[in-house]
Amino acid sequence: MCRVLSVLMNFKYRYFAGRSFLMLTVLLLLCLGTSPVWADRDDDSDYDVIPEVVQLPDGGGKSSGSSDKAKLKAQPSVKAPPAYTQKHKRRDVKSSPSGGFPWGNYDRSKNNQTKDDAKVKLKPSTQAPPPVKPSYGSGNKSGGDNKAGGSQERKSAVRGSSRNKIAGTRDYYGSGSASSNTKASIVIGAPKKLNFTAKNRSFPVSLRTTGIEDEYLTPVEDGGVKSIAQLFGLSSWQWDAGAKKLTLRKGASTLSLQEGQLDLPESLGGRHLEIGIRQVDGLYYFPLSIIEDILNVRVTVRPAQGKGWVEPLITNVYLDGSGRNLVLNVKATAPISYKTFRLNQPNRYVIDFYGGVLDTTNLRIDHPEMGDIRMGQFSLAPAVTRVVVPTTLNIKITPPGALSGQSFAFNLGLPKSDANVKFAQEKLLKYTISGSADGNKSNISLQFSGPVQYEWRRLTEGGNRFILDFKRVVFPENKLMRDVKGDFVNKVRISQYSSAPMPVARLVLDLKDSVSVKVGRGVGGNCLSIDIFNQVVDSSMTALRGEGSVTGVSSLSGGGRLICIDAGHGGSDSGCIHGASGLMEKEVTLDVSLKLAEILRARGWRVIMTREDDRDVTYAGSSNTEELRARAEMANQNNADIFMSIHCNAAQSTSAEGTSTHVYTHSDRALAKCLHPYLLNATGRYDRGIHQDRFYVLVHTVMPSVLIEMAFLTNGAEAKLLSTDEYRLRIATGLADGVCDYADKYLSK
Ligand SMILES: [Zn+2]
Question: Rounded to two decimals, what is the model's pTM?
Fold first, then answer.
């Protein structure tokens, strides 16, 4: 049993009605504050342009607002996972398809990425960065990247910009098909002493150029690099002259590289090197870039200046908190420092982080009122990362007390209201209200002129009402009131609830009873769909508020049943491991999940996956709860019909064996009853049956959900089976058959 999944939560809100979508989602959404919504915009027109960043500060580094330090800790903010940004370390670069926002554009159904694509490894470019042109970065370099569709291209574009225009140090592309045509000729230069700077200290480092852009060779026993590595937490540096093997350790991570070996360990991302450890003029050298992989730093070398820098990465910049009290979080892989100052016209608050290289895919955080928080690489070598907060709204900013550290929290207090603020507006263009023939379901579909954020509330006092507020939305009519056929909604009303300072259009459903209401993206872009089911939920257990957004891209085009497949573990979390072979649970679960997705898509299903490659769903080093919450949230936010989490079991005893299915609610059990026989038939192993467990992802998903333990990775025979392609395919096929059987029995088309 995986440790992560045993996170038991004391939530009692889950109600058994299969479609009672509201309850837990809402609690989760409440926890998340207003955050995830903003990440989900589709206007990427100016991702590459950060005008604020280009301009030099006039005032210099004056800190402002620091008188308010006392308030800093006042708010034990409801922790949200960093929805906006992803850490984007080198070792993570290959996880491009989902390298964006966990709650971002889930048009992953378009992503016909196969297992092979997922395994495409990326490596440093052998070329100088290509000239900046509009097409650059839109997935024209990587075989793996190209197939992933719109949102993928966007991620690539962002990465392109951050790598080449802003970060500017390095570019990556897939090695798959690309590498064969782009072999660089390796030309080893003469040894040269450079003066490296790390944490404000100087170190002499001996380097040879290699003919490969951004790759240098350094003697395996170079004292300067060793000292720098130590400064960044390297605990052990071993050169085994007999085995010609260099082993670097930092914390629990180990990087071993043998002469000639070009693939880095999978545990560190499995990056492919252009050049390995080799002997030159009787001395052994290693590729300098590997210290980036083990240390989580960026190495910048300027041979012409005789200088180099080793600097931490800024891996996360995100907003959390809620309502009018937000927290801007910045996280780095090692201590950095900051200064702040203000700029005018327009008013903005600038935070410069010294010594940190920006390493995120997302260069802005959109907030409906405040505007975009933008970030960029202000300078490199040495690195200054600039984050700009728009302050036209008179935001009260309380910076963190410590001017240096690895983690910063800036409290942003939004004004209660500000009549002078002009908000961008969208129009409610169209609405349709329809009911099913049997009167058991009604649907309201709303079409907006652009992306829109909404909040909803359920009122139980004085009648059952469901209220949706659309921010920044103008409703062209005075008021719309309509009766709805069916025995569970009395009326639908839409009106302009407020016009200043921020226009809000309000939709109110007068419910006859506390029936299920499901709010989600419509089929088209900028479209919201509200389903009302004649299915009574228990008001005392129903969540009362929530929020979401609609964007220009429909989350998943077309109809069809929607399954959310969760490949257990991933990235920094390997899951259980078969000791003898080293086979990791995260590999097996991903492969089976990808196979299952492919089969189901071929059968007309819409599929979203919590991950499609070897990565953390949130960010490396995230807590178990953050990670699991993100997975459940993904299913909830996309209104999946089914959630399936795929795992391998583990036990102390190597004789433990068999296949089991885990459930939490009654509706889960119905799914499990359909599924389990198919699964068991596919695995052909001992039947451990269906168990009820309070696993996080089961408790926190609001649709029928199951967790599959295919077999034991700690059992030699089962691990061997799980290592084969045929066996994995057999399981995937069995799961697909079971899911289809369930859908035919229980899901509407
Ligand atoms: Zn597991």
Answer: 0.41
